[in-house]
Structures
1.
Amino acid sequence: MSTQRQESKLIRNLGFWDLMAIAIGQIIGAGIMSSTGVAIGMTGTGVALAFLISPFLTIISIFPVAILSSAVPTTGGPYRYCSRLMGKGPGMIYLLLHTTSFGVAISQYALSFGAYFSSIVPAVDQHLAAMVILPLFFAMNLVGTKSAALLNKIMSVALIGGLLLFIGFGLPKTDMSYIMDSKNLFMNGSMAFVSTLALLSSATAGAQFIAELGGEAKDAGRTIPKVMVVSTFGVGVFYVLIALVASGVLPVDQVANQPLTLVAKETMPGITFYLFVIGAALGATATTLNSTLSWITKPLLVACDDGLLPKDLGTVSKNGVPYKLLTMFYVVGMIPLLLKLDISVITKFTTANSLLTKIMVCLALFALASRFGDILKRSSLKISPAQSKAVAVVGMIFI
């Protein structure tokens, strides 16, 4: 009987721009549409400054996985790092956190799409819209990761186009003197500003998940860390411009805790407004959902080869897709939609699990630096073991 690992059947065909499309799709989610208004309510026009700082804090928190991906790029990166560097027990814990967190997150992203779709077509229930869009992206990912990445490129163009409309129509109407007024800049004091930074950290995160695709990326050791940094700061620039418009067109008390659509209606003519909602709101949630389905199976695929899960469950198709695992996540994602669970319940559950997985990755980096320092020195980032340990500790603090 063949002992070939199923992960060896994955196709290494993802280049820089394929990974960029996946990373951007993962970063720009529904959060920017809803969290910007919440942030304005917390700190006033200081939201733009918070978005300017946020990418730097995000890089600090995801740099541990960037270092690991540079030194040892591999399929299902974080699970493999935890299981190989800390033992099977921690590896299984990571696997359970990953499966429960992101399996339910699929529902969250699909339901976010449904909520925005229902805002355009009120006759369609948001759960119904979610149950239609999820099977479509499931089917696309069954065709192959490359096809899913191509779809994300197309949707990312629409997404960025929608955001550019918001910026282009809004910036000329933005009152910069109002934004820079000290009464508006830190409306609720310095501690509220710090709390805003914590809130927005999730809005600029997401690029770290391409570490799961180390077995399918070309020149993964160089490409993956580069994509993480470029996508995080690139999206950060967009977010700053969006925040300027969101907080500088209408008075703060009007836009606090409101979605971006309120400002968009004020600055855009009718048809342009709908193009913004379709491109930005629907595009943000759709790209995040599609991106997640492209990498979510990879830790479990490696676990199947490791014998922690039934090997047959990790069977890879001729298209390079672990279709049984993908189907499993699809079913898990559909259950909360069928039960019509509230999105806030889903979001709280996924956030807590995500924080724990990040801590485990930092511990794995510390273990690698302690035991295999030469590997780090040979990586494309050329970072020393001592520096890696420091990054791991700082990463856990900022998480």
2.
Amino acid sequence: MNSISARFKGRMSAKKDVDMTEGNILSHIIKFSIPLLLGNLFQQLYNTVDTWVVGNYVGDDAFAAVGNIGPIINLLIGLFLGLSTGASVVISQYYGAKDEKHVQDTVHTAIAMTLILSVVFAVVGIALTPLLLKLMKMNAATTPEATTYLVIYFAGIVGLLIYNMGSGIMRAIGDSRRPFYFLVCSALTNTILDLVFVIVFRMGVAGVALATVAAQCLSAVLVIITLVRSDGYCKLHLKKLRIDMKCLGQIFRVGIPAALQMAITSFSNIFVQGYINFFDNPVSTGCMGGWTAYSKIDQFLLLPMQSIALASTTFVGQNLGVNKVERAKKGVRASLLVSSIFTVVLIVPVVVFAEPLVSFFNPTPNVVEHGALFLRLISPFYVFCCINQILSGSLRGAGDSKAPMIIMLGCFVVFRQIYLFVMTKFFINTPVSVALGYPAGWMLCSAICYIYFRKSNWEKHRLVKDVGSQAVSEAAAKPDGSEELPEQG
């Protein structure tokens, strides 16, 4: 083993990093995904606990307000998460190539960019809140509560952005455990502060928002402390924070398409929410609340596939860093298999216990009726989400971010909006017909993603080609020792 590889292995033994370019593929995917899954579970507790506290201790209008602002939050957060994905992919490929200098440059560029964007997102989020609520057709009773929550949330958005970028950096080098630990602390803090601010101090929606911001800032502080104290490739030197234009360009190459896809999809969901809110009237009460409850449960159902998709992104990135294309594709097949099994196991109890699950969030009979209807109608189609989530995440890990953007925008925005317009204007305008717009988009997206994935050329999109060549050549020449996996269709 040459000096580069020896130094790399020696430093890894003292850190939390995981080299996914060697060893059992399925084991890497599962071990990396479990902390991600648990971490994402705790992250969902932020909004879920908020919704539960508001629904049980504040009132129905506040419940609907907090529950329905998700598309607005996701609109701006989606922009940033795309850039975070870009940074993670760049770091994972350089890490796989054992190129410490470029890892360091990318880390400092990513954190500096995050600090700048925190200010921008806070200002833009607060300024756009009235317009976005109007586009959602939020009624007069819920608008003040929704406005209060969003203004506080965006004012403190720096915590969320720093945590997501920092955890993305750690995941890029195979460390999914510490981000999970930080989320546990954050979620517990959020839960305690929710109860204190709402029940004890009776601060209503404002208390819920303040609890969320405080918890997110805690997770951000923990991430920064960890990166500063690290002795590995991703060590953060606060005095060295600066923008490296080459690294920023690579982050944007992967991150901008992902950011646009996430943001535009979230923006289109604001209009979908408007279609749902149309039915919340004296003739059909409970539809808006039922959709809110469904949306909260929907987020939990998506967690396994999203976590495994992130694992696949890191796995593909690291292995392409050493040009192990076939090993990377075996990882994709393993990810598809594991995510499909997890999702099917979750769907069954959701369909069987739909009413109790909805009533946990809001026991109002009409809300329970509509929420259970949405759950039973949509949940069987989540298997298709596994396909499009895993394949798009893998393509981003390979450095190909434009294709998933085009495919997902075409299916989740253009096709879905055409479907909703045609269905509600010319055929039948019911909660069921509107809700089916989601499965229709998922199925179309999965089919196109699969066709593109089979024909894609990953070598063309690799970010790391000429760096770390000696280490790359050695790693590529070694047998990876992984078990062969059967082809998964």
